[in-house]
Amino acid sequence: MTTRLPQGHRYHRDVVVDLEARWFLGGVEIPGRVVLAPMAGVSVQAFRRQGRRYGAGLVCSEMVSVAGIQHGNERTLGYLRVASDEHPLAIQIFGSDPEAMAEAARRVEAAGADIVDINFGCPVRKVTKTGAGASLLDDPVHAARIVAAVVRAVDLPVSVKMRRGTANGSRDCLVVGPALVEAGAASLTLHPRSARQMYTGFADHSLTAELVSLVAVPVVASGDVTSAARAQEVLSQTGAEAVMIGRAAQGNPWVIREIRGMSGEPSPEEVVAELLLFMRESVRELGERRASGFLKKFYAWYLGRGRFPRAFRQELVLLQSVEEVERRLLAAAPGAAELLEKLERLDGPLDEVVLDSLPISIYGGG
Ligand SMILES: Cc1cc2nc3c(=O)[nH]c(=O)nc-3n(C[C@H](O)[C@H](O)[C@H](O)COP(=O)(O)O)c2cc1C
After folding, report:
1. Which of 7, 40, 198, 265 is the most interior residue, by most CB within 10 Å?
2. Residue-by-residue pLDDT tens, the chain, 366 positions
């Protein structure tokens, strides 16, 4: 596969693994080996479309509650919106009842996703106490029952994202993983921290390597991949099919480009233009009121990393409306206006036909 490099970008020297190589998840072709992580409160459609634009081979929705789908909760149903330029896209569901999971998977399929992803990794008590998320790693038989029910329900490939286990030092993923493949999972993503660890310590990718040696389906490595060097190291040392990028991509789509082997820090104008596009899309997706709260953490993420002074970031967070933030950003980086216009042309219109199939009130923020 040939790679298009924007002018001025060049490959790193020590490339071992070709990150542009395509791979298959079930029957779905994934055009690259960098995957954008599902992150609750982050992985909205604007984030996923941006990730695809920077070269993520696969993007994923945040975890969607099966109970919310069952009850027809409008905000939950909003998570099932799929735009035509997101593909390939996985939508992730969480729950504990096999039949409810199967029904939710049918809804995911009908919404137009390419892959149904199951969450067996969420460590948050609110989720684990309902028997969902990482708690299923303690019950491999039930976990396999869920996977089998979902696989039976849809024609799409079914993937599972999990942690190493619930307890610190656990190696349960090496037992649960193969059982889930046996039950029909077409791919596994491993974040090799325990649920107990939350995000402390480090992701022990020696477990990822062990898991790869035990299953015949693609494994995706998630956890602490923040640079091209680390991505190369993880891929070559584990034999994983792809690396997943989470926190490093928050307010930082450029890390995807960097990990794919292209150097180049964004200019302040580029940063502001991407942020403005993200803000406009978020408002369209979530409605002005919800978006204004949702976006605050993104101001710090985009403008941090030594890109803009702290005082400027703090000032933005205090502004009342998204429109005011937009004005302030354009005053700080006037050259961003022209870049934004270009980005909006490039990004193209959303596939309104798909959007129209959901209740209209969702557009207003629900
Ligand atoms: C804010 C946040 C929200 C997350 N939400 C989800 C989620 O909805 N589903 C999931 O499977 N993992 C979720 N994760 C875990 C990430 O997908 C990823 O596995 C983890 O952050 C480790 O990767 P990283 O070191 O690249 O961030 C979340 C992580 C963060 C930081």
Report:
1. 40
2. 333 444 444 444 456 899 999 999 999 999 999 999 999 999 999 999 999 999 999 999 999 999 999 999 999 999 999 999 999 999 999 999 999 999 999 999 999 999 999 999 999 999 999 999 999 999 999 999 999 999 999 999 999 999 999 999 999 999 999 999 999 999 999 999 999 999 999 999 999 999 999 999 999 999 999 999 999 999 999 999 999 999 999 999 999 999 999 977 899 999 999 999 999 999 999 999 999 999 999 999 999 999 999 999 999 999 999 999 999 999 999 999 999 999 998 876 665 434 444 433 333 222
Q: Residue 329: in which H helix or E strand, if any?
A: helix 322-332
Domain termination residue (choose one: 232, 259, 286): 259
Whose alpha carbon is nearest atom 13 of ligand 1?
Answer: 39
DSSP string over 204-248 = -HHHHHHHHHH-SS-EEEESS--SHHHHHHHHHHH--SEEEE-GG
CATH of the domain at 39: 3.20.20.70
Tell which atom from ligand 1 comes closest to the C-alpha of 248. 26
Do 134 and 162 sit in the same domain of this protein? Answer: yes
122 catalytic, yes or no? yes
In the set 66, 90, 111, 122, the catalytic residue is 122
Ligand 1 mean position, distance from CA 199 (Å): 9
Strands 34-36 and 187-194: unpaired
**Structural domain range at position 95:** 23-259
From CA 249, how far away is CA 37, in angstroms rounded? 9
Q: Which of 182, 63, 71 is nearest to 132 (CA)?
A: 63
Based on the fold, state whether residues 275 and 211 are members of the same structural domain: no
Please check whether residues 254 and 108 belong to one and the same domain: yes
Q: Is the pTM of this model over 0.90?
A: yes
Residue where a domain stops, chosen among 259, 291, 323: 259
